[in-house]
């Protein structure tokens, strides 16, 4: 997974569902932006994740649904 030096954005190397739990948790806790493997983009705005651009394989929607599920 690629990320900037401050950890504000993460670029996912494969679909969200295939990532290890620890990698997903790290992205959720620290990122302000998530770039999906299929070129989708999610940004945290006022504490809520929003899709800015849906990717070619709709992985941004999968990520958003996972982020909105209660713990």
β-strand percent reads 25-35%
Overall 3D form: globular
Order of helices and strands: EEHEEEH
Can you give the mean pLDDT? 83
Helix content: 25-40%
Number of helices: 2
Q: Roughly how many Å apart are the termini?
A: 24 Å
> What are the low-pLDDT stretches, counting only 5+ consecutive residues below 50?
none
Q: What structural class do the secondary elements suggest?
A: alpha+beta
How many separate domains?
Answer: 1
Give the biggest sheet: 5 strands, mixed
How do the strands line up in the largest sheet?
1-2-3-4-5
Whole-angstrom Rg: 11 Å
Number of E strands: 5
How do the helices and strands line up, and which of them pair or pack?
Layout: E1 2-3, E2 9-11, H1 21-30, E3 33-35, E4 41-45, E5 48-53, H2 59-68
Parallel strand pairs: 2-3
Antiparallel strand pairs: 1-2, 3-4, 4-5
């Amino acid at each position: 997974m690629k990320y900037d030096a401050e950890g504000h954005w993460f670029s996912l190397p494969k679909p969200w569902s295939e990532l290890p739990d620890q990698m997903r948790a790290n992205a959720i806790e620290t990122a302000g932006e998530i770039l999906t493997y299929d070129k989708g983009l999610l940004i945290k705005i006022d504490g809520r994740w929003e899709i800015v651009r849906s990717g070619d394989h709709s992985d941004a929607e999968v990520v958003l649904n996972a982020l909105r599920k209660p713990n």
